Amino acid sequence: MSTRAYITANNTTGYALTLFKKWGGPFSVEPPAEIQPNQTDVKFALDDNDRAGVVYLAKDSQNREVGFVSMSFTCPKSSSNSAEGSPNSEGVLIQSGLQRYNEHGTPVSFTYNIGTPNMACWSDGTTDDANPVCPQTTLEEWARVLVSVDNTKAVPLHLESTWQNGPWTKEPTSIPAGGKGIFLLNDNDRAGLQFLLNNNIPINMAFTCPKSSSNSAEGSPLAGLQQYAEHGTPVNLSYVISEVNQACWDSGTSNNGKVECSQTLLSGLDSWMQNSLNDIGTHKLKNICIPGSHDSGMSISQHGTAGAGDCNTITQQKNILGQLEAGARYFDIRPIIGGGTYYTGHYGNVDKMGLGTQGARGESIADIITQLNAFTEKHQELIILNLSHSLDTDSRDSNHNYRPFNDQQWDGLFETLLTINHLYIVEGFPPLGETELNNFISQHSSVVIIAESVSESVLSKYKGKGLFPSTSLSPYNSYSNSNSLGDMESDQLDKMKKQRAQDNYFLLSWTLTQSNTQAGGCIFDPTGATNSILDLAKIANNGLSSGLLPALSSQNYPNIIYTDDVGSGFPTSISMYINKFYANAQSTANKTYTLTLLPGAITNRDGIYKGSSTEAVWSPCNPIDLGGWNDGDELVVTCTLNLNPDIPNPPNSNWYVGLCAGACPASEKNQINALISEAQKIITPNIGELLGTHISTDKLATENAIFYDAIAKVGTFELSPASRGVLKNYIYGWTLKYNGKNTVVENGSDVEIVFGYGDPQQCEVDS
């Protein structure tokens, strides 16, 4: 059979293309297994009159999977020639750049300028209607769901498991640090992926593209699900690890925080501290983040007063053991005496209505001790019990209020608590925040009991027995007293910023408080429409990742994330994330980061020189992956000038610019553009210089300098042939120190560095 179609592919992208699928045929000239970045005039040929095509997988220069390029075509015997390519759309499909073609005649030639818009389509050789005909073109032949996972962090993303098991056309795999993976699911049922970031932080994803209803997807906190199309097959789903979820199961354009699939919920959090020791074992308690439980004993409500009910007293859905298994490590234990027995309780004064103290008992202290001992028998974790708000509910004063414990009642409680196994025993009452985590749990669990408002005469009897006064560990704890998520979020983030700036141990009280109307009305509301405490907890917890994550930096994070309904494990996941990428950064101050700027493409396809373009290679990682720059961190940056490009008439020495560098806030796009413009306008030749006003050569930092003590690396470079000249005393690198006390950027994560060098060619580098 003679050749019916000639195909030419010009790869205008910087991506390497690997053949993923070939269909139809036979081909008289086989499609190549690989097409190199910027390779042109790649030819293959089809010897068949039926439909055929190819699909290539694209990878960038760091071997990150970027997407697919598809090409479909036919030269039939009795109808028009047709061709199409992957559409001009976002997602994992890269535009194929089909050029205009002749709809009649044999053989036909089809040209694809990969990475450019399609100029034709299946039904028209001169225009693109953006409506692919072949299911292979959009990968629908092999997949209903196209999943891309972008691991933005400097640690691996390990594939723990998949569920529903596909069938997968392209199997899910682990993703290296800074890498990206693309996976194809060819099934209409629900399915999902479960990853571990840094081998201990769980990240779960779930999705479906059903045949008769809307597309749906969701992710656990830190999964970073982006907005998606609720209709159409296949559906493109993009997850950007560590970002806030922008969509959910119920909506492709917003996130209501609800979780549809049980597989999305987090598990395996019961030993998170032990599993994190490699990262935070040498950290002091005051430098790490742990999840905390508010009114921890109130998973049940019993023996309540007249104004108490489940809706205004229950704060947790799981008992203490369940909270421990979900990762909670700080417990708000409010001891009360009822019927001569020690319980936990949730009570409040309603003096304005003449009702005195109202509330109910929760779990008994005896049951809590049993649960603690069962947990510590199998786990090596640090557990902190904070005792406060004591009440003797067996007696009221003249105002119908219960009174706090007397010394004898505290004594009785402490003797009971001494039956807890693995109490943390040290001499005296040291400042526990200064103790490293390894000292608590390297050998076994440790249970620390902190008691508030207890007389020194009583507490001194328990010195060295595992009980401590509040002075040994006293977090700043001030709740917002609001039922508004926005008001609470603003209040707590503002307090966190102020307290952490003073290096204070900070408890983030991420709780919503019922109004008096809600607290009273929920008992008598037969419809159940009045928000209970647990209803408000769902609202607060759903807003935790979107509210807290954007505010984090290595200098600004909570020590305790304190919530109602802690049993979902969401606060634990976020605590682990903070410990890896923010608390861990604080312990690595004065770190040296190296940044290498590499030469990029140097010619257009016609051979005309177009200069050096840069790529940024960080070592050991981008500072943003550890929470941002810390005061005194050092940056060592070098560039590679493309001195001898293998092209006709290479540029002579007066084309070159040495390394120029500037810095500004990453949040100020106008300042970034101004630095880029300044780099572009540098008159050649130029040995290199500093851009803008925020990098200083002064040895001492000023408040206007983001980086200071800038020292240039200078070299002389001979060009070849010698007639092109010499680059004398050219700057090819800088050593800079970060000024953590500058008044220019918001924090160490809000730093943008702009570099220019070459002919010149600017490069924007996020740090």
Query: Helix/strand-derived class?
Result: alpha/beta
Total of DSSP H or I helical runs spanning 4+ residues: 14
Number of strands: 37
Globally, the shape reads: globular
Q: Can you tell me the residue ranges where pLDDT is under 50 for at least 5 consecutive residues? A: 600-613, 760-767
- The average pLDDT value, as a whole number, equals 90
Task: Kindly identify the CATH topology of the largest domain.
Answer: TIM Barrel
Largest sheet: 7 strands, parallel
Q: What's the end-to-end separation, in Å? A: 58 Å
* Name of the CATH superfamily of the largest domain: Phosphatidylinositol (PI) phosphodiesterase
Measured on Cα atoms, how large is the radius of gyration?
32 Å
Number of domains: 4
Helical residue percent? Answer: 10-25%
Beta-strand residue fraction: 25-35%
Q: What is the spatial order of strands in the main beta sheet?
A: 27-26-23-19-18-29-28
CATH architecture level-2 label of the largest domain: Alpha-Beta Barrel
What is the level 1 CATH name of the largest domain?
Alpha Beta
Structure notes:
With 767 residues, the protein is of the alpha/beta class. The chain folds into four domains: 5-114, Mutm (Fpg) Protein, Chain: A, domain 2 (Sandwich); 145-264, Sandwich (Mutm (Fpg) Protein, Chain: A, domain 2), CATH 2.60.270; 272-583, Alpha-Beta Barrel (TIM Barrel), CATH 3.20.20; 592-766, no CATH class. Helix content is 16%, strand content 30%. Strands 27-26-23-19-18-29-28 form a seven-stranded parallel β-sheet. A five-stranded antiparallel β-sheet has the order 4-2-6-7-8, with no helix packed on it. The protein has a five-stranded mixed β-sheet with strand order 22-21-20-24-25. The longest helix has 17 residues, at 485-501. It is globular. Mean pLDDT is 90; it is low at 600-613 and 760-767.
